[in-house]
Amino acid sequence: MPSAEDTSVHQERPVVRPTHRDEVAAAGSELIGGRSGRWSRLSSAALTPVGAIALVAIGMFALGMVQKLPCYNWAWFRGAGSQYTHACYSDIPHLYSGRGFADGLVPYFDRLPGDMQFLEYPVLTGVFMQVAAWLTPGGGSIQGQEQTYWLVNAGMLMICTAVIAVCVARTHRRRPWDGLLMALAPAFALTATINWDLLAVALTAGAMLMWSRSRPLAFGILIGLATAAKLYPVLLLGPAFVLCWRAGKWREFGAAALGTAGSWLVVNLPVMVFAPEGWKKFYTFSEERGIDFGSFWLVITQRTGESIDVGTVNTVSTVATIALCAAIGVLTLTAPRRPRFAQLAFLVVAVFILVNKVYSPQYVLWLIPLAALARPRWRDFLIWQTCEVLYFLGIWLYLAYTTSGDKHQGLPTEGYQLAIVLHLLGTLYLCAVVVRDIVMPERDGVRRDGSDDPSGGVLDGAEDVFVLSHLIETGAARRDALPSAPGPRVEWGTAGTPAAD
Fold this sequence. Notes:
This protein is an all-alpha fold. The chain has helices spanning 4-11, 23-28, 38-43, 49-67, 69-73, 80-85, 91-98, 123-134, 142-171, 179-183, 186-191, 197-212, 216-227, 237-247, 250-274, 276-279, 281-288, 296-304, 310-334, 341-355, 364-374, 378-403, 413-439, 468-481, and strands spanning 490-492, 498-500.
């Protein structure tokens, strides 16, 4: 385990340049003049790596907005089929009218017409949606208002994108260019304005940055706020728990847990007290929601023709998530070297996605910043992104097929099932290489220079105080040291037969 002195030495080393260490990055750099050299240092004063990555992320976000132009101009308002064939669907304009924002209804407090009754989003996301509605001018046609509402939300989500890019680029002090993985991710640009997930992603990225700066309370506060916007960020407390357990940093974990609970309550408690029915809609909707697009559950039901009770799906998914997260915990406590925080964060969120009963295409946004920090290798990242882009196209073409009537334009059921399998395999592949890096830390490119955990904050360079494999080895050594009973000691041979000493 590197000492604090060693860690400080590593932090003083120059910035890692991917074009000098990653063959795919080096090959891609030929499009812009080749690997960085002495001339790149002259321009670094004018544009830092963090600034460059933020600009690239904003540029990619803008390209994603351009990709939505067919829908913005007409497809959102001329039936479902066109927005699917152009792969430019977004929830944002439809929910402006569908969730009462066009009529001035207040989320959670005012009952909606129809079966939905209340807004089915967590409180902080509802606040984000309401602020965008306040910024959307009234008057004119409803189509014009929906277009403006989407533009307002896109502007706010672009700010979230810039925050994510800056946080990811700064989390690993010596590896800011790993943020380009997030900034250039094609699935990020394609899905950024489908829904409001980028709010939770930005808060989670900020929490990761705070953890890397040894500020566990700020980490917890941001995780609590992110959980008030989307449920998945609370899973990051699991990796923090087992890593602090292994390093004996209980005070730091306590601060993180306290900050999470406190900030979550600050946001949720007023709505819980004054609008309890509206507040609990997100949780009841999530529980009652049936098997939906993108999940392996959908493949099973479509292939077998048999429906599965939603209660059974909820139970199995919950048990599977707990079991797999427990396995990640055991891996953490038995690994030859304490895993990096980003590695475990990626794994637990990936587990949640893989066993869930629904996988909306924008859920990939949850994983992209974590993947850039957990496995900053362009080859593996692009393999995964290819699978996600194919799934993005697959779901829209499948919906086009199901809404085209007798024309059957789009992707049939079997093709969509293949797209789901590709998404699952791509995510599993990235999980596998992350686990391999944990089991064989010498394969971890981030630690190639002797670093411990650049995103680990107070855990970076800390000594291990509890390692399960060490306890097992110590227990075995103690048993071997005990005096033997009279007579020959019998052991079991490899062939399953007793062998005497």
